[in-house]
Write a structure and sequence with these properties.
Elements: E1 3-4, E2 6-7, E3 18-32, E4 35-48, H1 52-63, E5 77-85, H2 86-91, H3 110-116, E6 123-128, E7 138-141, E8 146-149, H4 150-160, E9 161-165, H5 167-181
Parallel strand pairs: 1-6
Antiparallel strand pairs: 2-9, 3-4, 3-9, 4-5, 5-7, 5-8, 6-7
Length: 187
């Protein structure tokens, strides 16, 4: 696996392959005696998986909107997936802060090799070049995707945007994500 290419230039809109830091996920809300308790998870890094054509159309129509125009192209939310530290995934402790113990993966044996070579359809392994961006080797677990409100993402983009995975690499990630989601589930 070679280093992926990234672009750190900030742009006005959200792109497929954008990586953001410190993204809040609302796990749930509960009312107790008139007080609303909100439980949230803050993911250190996430990657945008939504299709770029949808993100581009949303941006175009919002920017050129005038009263009465059809808002059919607007997105409510964006699909993202956490980027986990690869070493933590191998150890099975990447979700330990949530009280979850995951299966460990032997790094220097077949399961670890399959993961690193992106031969396991559930995961996508990414190596970042240290000269481009300071992110350790990471793994996307396609079972752990969620949505983030688009307006929230836009509001924090200035401070939380890290980089954008270049097109060739983001297309591969998108293809693998859609293949994983469209698999035939067996009991």
């Amino acid at each position: 696996m070679s280093n992926i290419k990234v672009d750190t230039k900030k742009r006005e809109r959200i792109f497929q392959g954008d990586i953001f830091k410190d993204i809040e996920y609302i796990e749930g809300a509960e009312e107790k005696e008139g007080i609303i308790e909100i439980s949230k998870i803050v993911f250190p890094l996430v990657i945008v998986l939504s299709q770029d054509c949808d993100l581009a159309q949303d941006f175009k129509y919002r920017k050129n909107s005038s009263e009465g125009n059809n808002q059919d192209k607007y997105l409510i939310s964006v699909i993202v997936a956490p980027l986990y530290n690869a070493e933590h995934v191998y150890e099975g402790n990447h979700l330990s802060e949530l009280g979850l113990s995951m299966q460990s993966i032997k790094k220097n044996r077949s399961p670890g090799d399959f993961l690193r070579l992106n031969s396991n359809p559930r995961y996508h392994y990414i190596e970042f070049s240290e000269k481009d961006v300071n992110i350790c080797d990471s793994i996307i677990d396609f079972k752990h995707y969620f949505t983030v409100n688009l307006n929230y993402l836009l509001s924090i983009k200035k401070n939380n945007y890290v980089c954008k995975v270049n097109e060739l690499y983001r297309e591969r990630i998108s293809q693998r994500f859609s293949n994983f989601l469209s698999r035939i589930g067996l009991p």
